[in-house]
């Protein structure tokens, strides 16, 4: 069943009980950040359906009060982590309709009412518009269009067909740039990531899941819109920064951070601009909402892997200092 068809069915089934009122995006780790594009879209385009993203464990411990029979809960996990399965059970107990996003079938797919398979961003041969982030964005856009109408829905569906070609071109363009950046960064102990608006989820994944988790380099993430309210004090000519410049309405905040860095930081500042790597291949009416789908695989599959090569840290092992029971 196609995503649009699935969402239409769920919403139609809710008509007799008052219709859809809420959608909640539930996941852990990188999958949680993968919901960011959908949440960003819902916040800016929906006036009828309330949307919230929340981590799996937090949903189990303290579910939002509004979750109930008028709620769709989208639960995402590649292989079904323990806390995400528990979150799906909690959502069902509250009466919500549950939709899993998965790579491999697990206890999660057994619990949820509906299941949508996605392709991992690790796989370059997969359509990057059909990753967990891409499918969640499709769901969000379908919800808004069905319930209240989304004027740019056709433009958005066209943009989904252009994400993979844009990614392939961006990947090839960035490879020599990433190699140079990684050689410069190989001995750094801290790499600070700045991003905002539609790119914030990508920045947080890059910082937390790629640089920190996989390569064991400390990597705080700051929102460019809030950078000048405390974090900018760490700016130093010896500090390493990676700045994502988004397409869309918060771009001015990113540009302000870049201007500040050029004046007060050193030569360890790297700037990756969505427009430079091809977001403008998509229509202006919707390109902002697809920033995450372009940045995230480029950061994961190009920049992180080049830094892994230079540091000698094998990202495939995903080493853990502590043994945690999931």
Write up this protein.
The chain is an alpha/beta fold. The chain is built from eleven helices and nine strands. The strands form two sheets. Strands 2-1-3-4-5 form a five-stranded parallel sheet, with helices on both faces. Strand 8, helix 10 and strand 9 form a beta-alpha-beta unit. Helix 1 crosses helix 7 and helix 7 runs antiparallel to helix 8.
Question: What are the segments in which pLDDT stays under 50 over at least 5 consecutive residues?
Answer: none
How much helix is in the residues? 40-55%
Give the helices and strands as they follow along the chain: HEHHEHEHEHEHHEHEEHEH
Quaternary structure annotation:
single chain
Rg on CA atoms, Å: 20 Å
Helices and strands: which structural class?
Answer: alpha/beta
Shape: globular
Largest sheet: 5 strands, parallel
Give a brief description:
The protein has 326 residues and is of the alpha/beta class. It has helices spanning 3-13, 30-33, 36-45, 56-61, 82-93, 107-111, 132-147, 153-185, 200-214, 251-264, 291-311; strands at 22-27, 50-55, 71-76, 97-102, 114-117, 191-195, 221-223, 240-245, 269-273.
